[in-house]
Amino acid sequence: MSEPGWSARPVLRSSPDGAATPGEEAVAVEAPVALLFNGVSHVVMMATPLSLSELGLGFALSEGLLDDAAQCYGIDVVPTPLGWEVRLEVATRSFARLQERRRQMTGRTGCGVCGIESLQQWAQPPSRPADWSVPDWLSSWRADDAPAQSAVQTALLDLPGRQVLNAQTGALHAAAWVTPQGQLLQVFEDVGRHNALDKLLGHLARSGAPMSEGWVLMTSRASHELVHKCIRAGVPLLATVSAPTSLAIDAAHAGQLRLWAWCRDGRFSTFA
Q1: Angstrom distance (rounded) from CA 54 to CA 74
Q2: Is 111 assigned a catalytic role?
């Protein structure tokens, strides 16, 4: 029986003795999701169709389309024969700015810069929120700091148990909001790492959670688009279980984002 986020599909499993056994496998749902702002389609992405209102709000904020959640007046999630539509009603000023920089991005699963028109435009790093500053608890955290090591290890041990869909399908990334002590407060899953992060950021913005009181842990590599999103949102620290890219490290330095990677087996590497 299928559940939201996954579907049961027939499978033929081989065995070492050469026999084949028919059965069913839980497969992650990947569906086209269109984001519309004031009735105008802005982007279509491939995503897991859960927590789509959080995805829409998080995307709008992390891409700089909205300055804060108050500029979004309402979100409707509508299933269609071809996929899903997330319809956001935003402030007139925000919509005018969106129209000026309108771009069409389809299937943003890797590059993260679809629609950028020039190298000069790409070279402009995202800006921090005006009231952002480094939290006190993070000031002393280093790779050899006991509280930091304990927080990372605690979060890593707890995260697999919170990845419900990935346990079923083995195909989803997770983005988690973690306290300085390593407690997982929220976990969102999606087939796309950036979608999982946008869902988390959308939830945090909607709840009014202070970004200074936690950090983000992700089950993916540290890519430049994840770094950019965290910088815009005011996240102080991004930690990933896999490696960073060169652009991610450079962007983290430019945006004053603490970047940890290779977070596994109770250790981590500080890159920025």
Answers
A1: 12
A2: yes
Question: Count of CB atoms within 10 A of residue 85's CB?
Answer: 19
Per the CATH hierarchy, to which homologous superfamily does domain 144-270 belong? Cytidine Deaminase, domain 2 (3.40.140.10)
- Residue 104 clears pLDDT 50, i.e. is over it: no
Which residues are registered as beta bridge partners of 264?
A: 267
Common-topology check for domains 31-107 and 144-270 = no
Every domain of the chain and the residues it spans: 31-107, 144-270
Q: How far is CA 93 from CA 3, 72, 76, 101, in A?
A: 40, 11, 20, 13
**CB neighbourhood size of 164 (10 A):** 15
DSSP for 190-259, written as a single string:
ESSHHHHHHHHHHHHHHHT--GGG-EEEESS-B-HHHHHHHHHHT-SEEEESSPBPHHHHHHHHHTT-EE
The distance from CA 222 to its chain's CA centroid, rounded to whole angstroms, is 11
Degrees to nearest 5, angle at CA 77 with 74 and 80: 145
Share of the chain above pLDDT 70, in %: 90
Under CATH, to which class is 31-107 assigned? alpha beta
Among residues 111, 114, 230, 263, the one annotated as catalytic is 111
Tokens 């299928």 locate to: 2
pLDDT at 116 over 60: no
* Alpha carbons 176 and 196: distance in angstroms, whole number: 9
Residue 41 confidence (pLDDT) above 80: yes
Question: Lowest-pLDDT range, 2-6, 47-51, 93-97, 110-114?
Answer: 110-114
Mean pLDDT over residues 129-141, rounded? Answer: 88
